[in-house]
């Protein structure tokens, strides 16, 4: 089992559940018969890079990038040296418009993860070149359970719900205890319908400061 740090205890009931065992059996077949992303050792990177104790915000994606070399277990993020997909380019444009940070050379969002942003996809794996191909294997149950766990056990988190798929998770979140920020998806198809100008980066930090929590350093430039 991959070391999940302080997530090991809160996630233990999910890993012991029969539904997770079915996901494992499905993945054993998929990884042995097809090309699947991310690498099996990177599936749970969102938990490895953002300790449970340090979660401040949750950014929900859909499923991993399905082209070679892109996915590495953090939603919207790509590995260093990989061209930025259009949605990520738009996220970085909004970041510049909101907080003034110039777009970085790399689309690797590991720094955000280390700052306390849980970069969680609603499905954690995908078959190469087939978007949403693992959407019905059980991951929705697993990631919904993670959202519910965070909502129930934490206080004063910010949930960033961009696009229809993410916004459908809103009922899982206790809005009396957390801030939910929702808008259109950063995809070129919808970014001009409410993503650009949403100012979610600064709004997240304003909320955290109001609760006495250190804000997130969103600047990805080294």
Secondary structure blueprint with pairings:
Elements: H1 8-16, H2 18-33, E1 36-37, H3 45-49, E2 57-61, H4 86-99, H5 110-114, E3 117-121, E4 126-127, H6 139-153, E5 158-162, H7 164-167, E6 179-183, H8 200-210
Parallel strand pairs: 2-3, 2-5, 5-6
Antiparallel strand pairs: 1-4
Structure description:
By secondary structure, the chain is an alpha/beta fold. Helices cover 36% and strands 11% of the residues. The strands form two sheets. The protein has a four-stranded parallel beta sheet. The longest helix has 16 residues, at 18-33. The chain is globular, with a radius of gyration of 17 Å. The two termini are 33 Å apart.
Q: Any descriptors?
A:
222 residues, alpha/beta, 4-stranded parallel beta sheet, two-stranded antiparallel sheet, 6 strands
Which regions have little confidence, pLDDT < 50, spanning 5+ residues? none
Strand order of the largest sheet: 3-2-5-6
Mean pLDDT: 96
How would you sum up the global shape? Answer: globular
Number of strands: 6
Query: Whole-number radius of gyration?
Result: 17 Å
Residue share in helices?
Answer: 25-40%
Q: Please summarize the sheet with the most strands.
A: 4 strands, parallel
What distance separates the N and C termini?
33 Å
Succession of helices and strands: HHEHEHHEEHEHEH
- In percent, how much strand structure appears in the residues? 5-15%
Short description:
The protein is α/β, with parallel strands linked by helices. It has helices at residues 8-16, 18-33, 45-49, 86-99, 110-114, 139-153, 164-167, 200-210, and strands spanning 36-37, 57-61, 117-121, 126-127, 158-162, 179-183.
